[in-house]
């Protein structure tokens, strides 16, 4: 059980509501209410509460070691691609606030997408039951556009300094 999801549902509920408030204040309201508690830590009472709060509770079905400092983008991509199968959810960390190898994780995403498409996979969304629903969009062949509204992070970061934040992230003051 992680410290994030205690055995007390009320504590988890308060943390979820606090995170919603922080994200909304930062200009990043939550559109998708799927949740995978850190380390998958939970229990039936916490899961029930999350569902009652309108969240879809799920665990990632492909775990990766993208949080390890020595992981390169290629190693992360290869590890995930090796585990691909229809209907899986890929669990990755979200960059420099989560992991010292955040830049490699960010770089690996494009590699994973390209290789998965090359192997015939498509991507989808997670429905209310926690299942992946395939989305059969066909690539336009156009390059992925530049980020216009970067994800805000509060300083200090868990790992590194402001100068070490890989772009396009920007700190919130």
Short description:
This protein has 173 residues and is α/β, with parallel strands linked by helices.
Describe this structure in words.
The protein folds into two domains: 1-59, no CATH class; 60-173, no CATH class. Helix 1 (9-25) crosses helix 2 and helix 3 crosses helix 4. The relative contact order is 0.13. Strand 3 (123-126) and strand 4 form a beta hairpin. The chain is built from four helices and six strands; from the N terminus they run H-E-H-E-H-H-E-E-E-E. The two termini are 32 Å apart. The strands form three sheets. Strands 1-2 form a two-stranded parallel ribbon. With 173 residues, it is an alpha/beta fold. Helix content is 31%, strand content 10%.
């Amino acid at each position: 059980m992680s410290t994030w999801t205690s055995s007390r549902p009320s504590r988890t509920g308060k943390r979820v509501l606090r995170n919603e408030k922080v994200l909304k204040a930062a200009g990043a309201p939550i559109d998708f209410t799927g949740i995978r508690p850190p380390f998958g830590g939970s229990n039936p009472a916490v899961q029930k509460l999350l569902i009652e709060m309108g969240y879809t509770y799920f665990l990632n079905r492909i775990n990766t070691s993208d949080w390890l400092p020595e992981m390169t983008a290629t190693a992360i991509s290869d590890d995930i691609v090796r585990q691909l199968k229809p209907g899986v959810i890929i669990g990755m960390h979200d960059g420099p606030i989560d992991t010292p190898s955040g830049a490699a994780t960010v770089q690996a995403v494009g590699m994973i997408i390209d290789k998965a498409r090359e192997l015939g996979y498509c991507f989808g969304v997670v429905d209310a039951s926690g299942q992946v629903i395939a989305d059969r969009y066909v690539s336009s062949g156009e390059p992925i556009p530049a980020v216009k509204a970067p994800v805000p992070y509060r300083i200090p970061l868990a790992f590194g300094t402001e100068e070490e934040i890989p772009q396009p992230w920007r700190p919130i003051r």
